């Protein structure tokens, strides 16, 4: 069973950047699509970026043009480069397959955008 460990979150000022990493304990090559999700306080978890095994990507409208998802199958790692961060991006960020699998949820990494 694959487990994901997210890292790279922190406190950043509006307009700043962060790069999140998601390390898998097993191979992600067999997982067709991986996603980054986020959950803000009082809100439902949402998918913000998705990438297929072949590298095709999709983004939520709220992050399009600012976030970039990538995956390194050889390193079993998925990344999320986040630029031009806004206070509304504040949330706990998780990675999982897309669609998600309940057993794959990790602890997430907190991203706080504030001046």
Overall description:
Helices cover 0% and strands 48% of the residues. The chain has strands at 4-7, 10-12, 18-24, 33-39, 46-52, 57-59, 67-72, 77-82, 91-97, 109-113. The strands form 2 sheets. It has a 6-stranded mixed β-sheet, with no helix packed on it. The chain contains no helices and 10 strands. By secondary structure, the chain is an all-beta fold. It is globular, with a radius of gyration of 13 Å.
Q: Short summary of the structure?
A:
The chain is an all-beta fold. 0% of the residues lie in helices and 48% in strands. The mean pLDDT is 94.
Low-pLDDT regions: none
Q: Categorize the overall geometry.
A: globular
Q: What's the overall average pLDDT, rounded?
A: 94
**Biggest β-sheet, characterized?**
6 strands, mixed
| Helix fraction by DSSP (H/I, runs of at least 4) | under 10%
Element pattern in H and E: EEEEEEEEEE
Task: Give me the secondary-structure category.
Answer: mainly beta
């Amino acid at each position: 069973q694959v487990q994901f460990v997210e890292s790279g979150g922190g406190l950043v000022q509006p307009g700043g950047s962060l790069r999140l990493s998601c390390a898998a304990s097993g191979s992600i090559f067999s997982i067709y699509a991986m996603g980054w999700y986020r959950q803000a306080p009082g809100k439902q978890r949402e998918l913000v970026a998705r990438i297929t095994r072949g590298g095709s990507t999709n983004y939520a409208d709220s992050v399009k043009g600012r976030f970039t998802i990538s995956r390194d199958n050889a390193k079993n790692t998925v990344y999320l480069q986040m630029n031009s961060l806004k206070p509304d991006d504040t949330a706990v960020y998780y990675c999982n397959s897309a669609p998600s699998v309940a057993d794959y949820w990790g602890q997430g990494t907190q991203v706080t955008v504030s001046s």
